[in-house]
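User: I'm curious whether this sequence folds into something compact or stays loose and floppy. Could you predict its structure so I can see for myself?
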Amino acid sequence: MLNLLDHPAVQAGVAPLLVALIVAVVLSRTRFAWLAIVAGYATMIALSTGFAFSPLTASRKIVLLCLGAPLLGILADLLLRKTRCAAPAFSVVAGALTIWVFQSILRQREGLEAIVTGAGVALFVAALVYAMLRLRGDGLRAGAAGLGLGLATGIGGLLSASIGFLAAGISVAAACGAMLLVQVFSSRALPAGFTGALTIGTSTALFAVGTLLLAELRWYALPLLLLVPAAVMLPAPERAPRLVRAAVLAVYALIAAAFPILAAWFAAHGSLFN
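Assistant: Here's the prediction. I'll summarize afterward.
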């Protein structure tokens, strides 16, 4: 059994999927069901690297923010659900925190390059978080977007020589897949709220930026990730069975996820962008 838990596929995919399923089912009649996302991610961390925050490196700051995002989301769902400025405010905060997360890497760059890089990644994180928060009222759309973003950042990490971000992205994708399954077979809607949408947006955005600054992902893959939440906003058969609607939205997300994945592949194998 211990040998099985050491397998990367179990750590990144199978275990997060099962844990997320259990958490989602247990909490399906509460507003906390979307804690399944962070439960899946935390399972991957526990089985692979373990939890350690000293010294507080960029990678460990990412873990810290990913674990903290759902807590902030719960507070927002309890206190700020009807506040119109909440989503833009959280997006700006996420973008600003990106500078804190990667400050040690940005300090290694000179002058204008550091400023442009810092502003660019902060803007990207803010944009992706905001795009996800726009989906917080529709659990199927949020779950499909999380599935696509998790796969895109995970596979992008693999193609960019980052096994850590491969596992992180796949764990989020697995957890979002679990949420889709629970919603398909549940008798009630499970809106993502800030708890789910903020967690998905913050985590996948930071995984992508981490792969850019700490591995070999090229900058043009980041804006392509924004296609995923945009794609799941396309019309879907609202009156069709929930399984059909979930499948259509998942296909939208996977098609959109193919673009940043292809960008990472071309960067790894040589292209006109090099």
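Summary: The mean pLDDT is 93. The CA atoms of residues 20 and 36 lie 4 Å apart.
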